[in-house]
Amino acid sequence: MAILRHALIGYGGMGNWHINAIRDKIPEIETYGVYDIRPEAMEAARQNGLHTYDSLDDLLADPTVDLVTIAVPNNFHKDYSIRALRAGKNVVCEKPVTMNAAELEEIIAVQKETGRVFSIHQNRRWDRDFCIVKAAKEQGLLGQVYLVKSMVQGSRGSMYGWRGHKENGGGMLLDWGIHLIDQAMQMFDEPVVGVDAHLLSMYTPGVDDNINVFLRFESGCSYMMEMSTNCLINLPRWHVQGTEGTLQIDDWSCSGRLMKLKPNAEMKWSDDIVYTEAGPTRTMAPRPEYTMLELPLPDVQTDWADYYKNIAAVIAGKESLLVTPEQALRVMRVVDLMFKAEADGESKKCHI
């Protein structure tokens, strides 16, 4: 496989991550050059052994560059992606790919016109916690999954930097929300038929910084997502209920439990009231231990580097693209509908 020469537009926190991740783990790609409008970022790039371009035009005109990664504020994604594609470059764009679905449709039209590879850096498809939940569902360990709660909770109180500005495409829905919705739509390969959103702006005027969003899938599963910036006592990262079991993942370390109903273990109901800490009850009394067993969480090994390995293999004609523009378009259509649900104060039916 020929070595691909890579250049980066935007050398901020994520831009630096892209460079280092490729250098450390992707021998098929040579990290070469950077363009950023900030002099201090360009100096940092030179200190990191990278070539710096005098302008974006100079980067795009370099015939030795095969692959460009775009890691700039969201409102520049569409224009930079289209310029790079028309310059003959293969393109990786940071998420969210665009500000809305209509912008992405413009990029897809140019991608088809140019025949270049275009993908979106949805790296959290490779998060180990998500992959454990997805594996448990696919292996049928929980029976039919009918309720998923996916929660990411921070405590610093606001959105950082340009993510706190609406004109840049800031806000939690376009930040972490994109990741969690993409995970949901990877876990359930079926249409979304209902959408709702409660987008709060508590500490960052002008953008949503604490949000609850909801998807209903065609099979009937309710998928609830919470992302907050002022949570001082975190809930579990995942809580998943199915007809035959319950799975919980506590945190990013992937500690958790999977409890499953024992086959053919009939639960007997008593005519006597059960007395619990909640008072007398039958419905909410603890289930007898003899009807359950605890299973280990699926053993899943993941690596974010697999994203760029796939990009290199696709450009070489050896693999199919794992993160496609069409997948991102479904996500952006859901996000557009969530913003509308918040604006109208009502849930939305759909078939996405």
Write the layout of secondary structure elements.
Blueprint (H helix, E strand, L loop, with lengths): L3 E6 L3 H13 L3 E7 L3 H9 L3 E2 L3 H6 L5 E4 L6 H10 L3 E5 L6 H14 L3 E4 L6 H11 L6 E9 L19 H15 L4 E9 L9 E8 L4 E7 L9 E5 L2 E5 L6 E6 L12 E3 L2 E3 L10 E4 L10 H10 L9 H20 L3 E2 L3
Parallel strand pairs: 1-2, 1-4, 2-3, 4-5, 5-6, 7-10
Antiparallel strand pairs: 7-11, 8-9, 8-17, 9-10, 11-12, 12-13, 13-16, 14-15
Helix pairs in contact: 4-5, 5-9, 7-9
Task: Note down, in words, how this protein is organized.
The mean pLDDT is 95. The protein contains nine helices and 17 strands. With 352 residues, the protein is of the alpha/beta class.
Please give a quick description of this structure.
The protein has 352 residues and is α/β, with parallel strands linked by helices. It is built from nine helices and 17 strands. The protein is elongated, with a radius of gyration of 23 Å.
Q: Top keywords for this entry?
A:
352 residues; alpha/beta; nine-stranded mixed β-sheet; six-stranded parallel β-sheet; 9 helices; 17 strands; 31% helix; 25% strand
